[in-house]
Specification:
The protein contains eight helices and no strands. It is an all-alpha fold. Helix 3 crosses helix 4 and helix 6 crosses helix 7. It starts with a helix and ends in a 6-residue tail after the last helix.
């Protein structure tokens, strides 16, 4: 058996997707620490015994600007770059992550099931109108086939029109 250019491209693409899924799945179940009410910057600064003026001096900013940044962080309205600069001056590492609530394969499977169900409902309605209704076992088999096709088709089909 030999690989054509498109087979080779497809194999590489599947390998890359598999690697991305492994990275994303490595975060499943990780519980990040709860953000303190006043935010991490103020909490760490206070724990270090550093005043807002002192942090401002280290960053070339006023005490008032530090206060504004701390308030923005607590409210979730700070940029990652600002947070990175503050973390650096507090001798901290900034950690940023999106943590999937479940394995990526489960998310994809659930989405494919929604699409397959919609397609099956539409097909069943058309068949009913044409007096060609199918039994439950055939419906289950067709549902499984549609779902597998959606998963195999990938992102463009899987995530099209996601407003639900």
């Amino acid at each position: 058996m030999y690989f054509t250019r498109s087979n080779s491209k497809n194999t590489v693409k599947k390998t890359v997707v598999h690697q991305y899924r492994a990275i994303a799945n490595s975060a499943v179940g990780v519980s990040p620490p709860k953000k303190p009410k006043e935010g991490w910057v103020r909490t760490i600064r206070t724990a270090l015994g550093m005043s807002g003026s002192q942090l401002g001096e280290r960053m070339g900013l006023s005490r008032n600007r530090i206060s504004v940044l701390e308030r923005k962080e607590a409210e979730g309205d700070i940029t990652l770059n600002q947070l990175k600069e503050l973390a650096e001056q507090l001798n901290c590492d900034l950690t940023y992550a999106l943590v999937p609530r479940k394995p990526i394969e489960d998310i994809i499977d659930e989405r494919a099931a929604v699409i397959a169900s919609r397609n099956l409902d539409a097909n069943s309605q058309n068949m009913f109108l044409e007096a060609q209704a199918i039994n439950e076992e055939a419906k289950k088999r067709l549902f499984k086939q549609i779902k597998e096709q959606v998963i195999e088709s990938g992102g463009r089909v899987l995530w099209k029109n996601t407003k639900e």
